[in-house]
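seq:
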Amino acid sequence: MALAGGSSVHFPTPEGYYFQEGGVFSSDGHCRPFDKNAEGTNFTDGAGMVVLKRVEDAIRDGNTIFAVIKGGAINSDGGDKGSFSAPSVNGQAACIRDALNDAGVDAGTLQFLEAHGTATPIGDPIEMEGLRQAFATRADPSRLQYCGLGSVKSNIGHTTAAAGVASLIKTAMALRHTVIPGTVHFETPNPGLEIENSPFYVVAKTMDWPRGEPLRRAGISSFGIGGTNSHVIVEEAPPPALTDEAAPERPFELWPVSARTVAQRDAQLQSLSAERYWPRDVAHTLQTGRARFAYRGARVRLNQLADDDVLVQPAQRAIDEPRSVFMFPGQGAQYIGMGRSLYESIPEFRATFSRVCELLGEEMGLDFKAFIFDDANVETLENTRFTQPALFAIEVSLGRMLLDFGLKPDYMIGHSIGEFVAAHLAGVFSLEDAVRLIAARGRLMADLPRGRMLSARGAVAAVVAAAGEPVDVASINGPVHSVLAGDFEQIARVQARLEAANIPCRPLHTSHAFHSAMMEPVVAPFLDIVRSVRLSAPQLTIVSTVTGEVMTAADATNPEYWAGHLRATVKFSPAVFKALELGANVFLECGPRTTLSSLVVQHFASAGKSADERIAVSMLADSPAPAVEIGGVGAALARLWCAGIELPWERIWAAGRKVPLVTAYPFTHKQFRFSEGRTPEIRAAASHAVPAADLAVPALAAPVAAQAAAAMTGAANGAAPAQDEKAALVTQLGRLFGEYSGLSIQSSESTFVELGFDSLLLMQIGVQIGKLFGVSVALRDLMQRLNTLPALAAHILATAAPEKLQHLRAAAPAAMPAALSAVAPVAAPVAVPAAPTAAPMAHGAAVASPAMTLAFDDAQSMRAQLQVLQA
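struct:
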């Protein structure tokens, strides 16, 4: 392709011109092509550019075609006219005839002509005569006034070197939008043109130009002083070709944007709401026709499922070297109907899910797909005989769907039953063997005596020590989160001891004591079944939750590893730390609910990683509603892309057309011109220390003085403004949450659930808040009504006893000395005695001499500096 255009920009911009009777300049600044009052043009600045491409290439590449150039011609008549600047009828007519011949079209097929149209007394009549001679070659010479005539110079003036490309752009846009713009300032035709006896009429008002037969065509003239003439013939673009390629329809579209700043990204996300093209075309254009920058966002369009888009707008930059982890959750994440919407809408999911359910039906003797989608089976699904196969079916279908989409993980981690999913996807066992193992595993475990599991908030060593007796650790889920398992009596005793030691804990709703000694009776029978299947080395990297290390080929092919899996502690936390050590930074939970992604977030701070460097994403929530499940998958893909994972768009969606979007890159405009009376941009110099002896305090304007006096008087009386109290309390609460969780609070506006705090942690913090402030805060409040730091702070300020908040007032800005407790305007600068040390000025201060003017970013900085000056 080629870029072609022209520009004419004068600097400094000329201001006005001298009108001369008979010259080329208009007497009133208006350009009136072909009007009886036309007396000249006006010259303006302009620039324009078009992209040129062979039409067959543009069609093949799915480009947006505004118009097709059928042919053109250029000549020079400089040797055949009376003067250098005078136009020539013969030269212009010859150029137009040559263009018609080059295009292979008859002049009678043109419906519009964009004229040079300078509106000069000499130029218009000569141009009309040249057009009349050129169009005399048409097949039907008797046909009159069928071709509209106009000139963009009536709208924008004569842009000299950019005039030709402006005319081309105008005509191409007229063809695309099926409308011909009116020629402004035109009222009555110039009688000297005899336009009524020509093929032309002036388009005085904007008019429709509908598609139909014959094809719409137009001519465009551009003539230069000195003898250069040019003319092109353009035609409407061909209709977009329909593709015969079979591709799956998706129930959602992902509209990605990226920018160099957060503000530019957010502006693009906002402007996406104005797009009116077919969603697939908008998505295709954004996915394949835009550069990639660090700050990313996306809108997920749920086609016919919801009125509102899912907006993905993360604050962090894309990760420079993203390395992904697929995580598969274990028992407890299930819900009835899970995957129903995905089964109905996504072929890749449906294919795997149908096959797994068919195999499970053979193993278990029931229609498993009907079972899992039937709301009547909500209680039966809690039976581990059915829970484990159901989770395997959902998770392996999600994992296979992602692989079919072209997403290959760098690592995989499976929690309990989830490790069997990872192993199958990595090729350790076939789908048929995996289903056989899962069905047998669930059946054997379901037949064991029932037991109990206890979730405890604390480091595993501290929890085991506080238990007061030997107890099985079923799983280590986080740096301070573990699960104990045993029979009912033992877990009841251990729970009482943990509560006495102030270790938060709560029983889990499980049927058995998984991963404990109570599983020992089924290890040997399961080993016999594992020995009957073929085991292979993994083709994808799995971080084992049995060893906490990368799964070796020896582990994967050892039947005793998979049999002992029933009894072994689930070392999820060590596996996550190992993945982080290996460089993993994008964790995707491939299963129902958000359990694992919430746990992973708790590891980031412990591993010394900020939220900008790591991300955890979940795919499904806890509802089979189409907008929730399909929206969850779409939002998860969007978050992966925002984190820096490049999605293979062409494997996920059918190809679309590239269309001209309303959404353009919002460049940050800066003004660098400081002529023409403009004030140059002045930047503050770097901060520097100034000896206090060189400073003087000038008079303060009355309003500023009053505000400063009010603020400092309040501080002197020991009463901090309410806003300062709230800010201090938010800071204190942020430290409290950080101390208990080990997490860094990245945003005070994020909810506690979004920050990764689980119910045990929130219960623990609620108890501590009661001790500190005497305020009762229930777990439900922290999960819903008081679920952000500002909301919680406001509640405490409104309900706590005054003595419980005294420390907040002490944390407010220090009281001013009496001499400065009230500030009044003074008539002259006040001399300040030299201080023993130099006082650094606040950032952004402005300096004037001999008096000193100080400017500050906030009142607190001002008060602090005035204290220094007063000393």
